[in-house]
Task: structure prediction
Amino acid sequence: MPTLPDFLLLSLVGLAAYCDIDRRRIPNLLVVSGLAAALLLHLASGGPPAMLRLGLAGMAAGGAIFLPLYLLRGMAAGDVKLMAMVGAFLGPATAALAAMLTVIAGGGVALLMLALSRYTGRPLTGMPYALAIALGTTCAVAATRA
Result:
């Protein structure tokens, strides 16, 4: 069953997806606030060892997974930072699952955008990848909390 931190995480990635769709930007304030909340929640639940083991390790894992795509110019920095925030909430193992599911969701979103582009006749102008991150994170939380 999802916990209060899960609902906070899902709210944050949902808001990030909305911002990315609407403005093609993920606000740094949203990501930094989420990172701080995740680390404080880990600190409150298990002290410094839990914050280091789950929060910081998850943040590093989440960011590191998508960092190569950013370096190859295949992804924006906001997406990498958002995935690091997701990892800070979920820990390294679940962050890896969320990243894998995000890649799958990203393929689906890309196909949908391509179909919409062909239907409307307007060219693609980039993909709001925070939507894929929100979908992948939601699926990872659902799969691990059931």
User: Anything to note?
Assistant: Residues 14 and 134 are 6 Å apart (CA to CA). The helical segments are 4-23, 28-71, 77-90, 92-120, 129-145. The first helix runs from residue 4 to 23. The chain has one domain: 4-145.
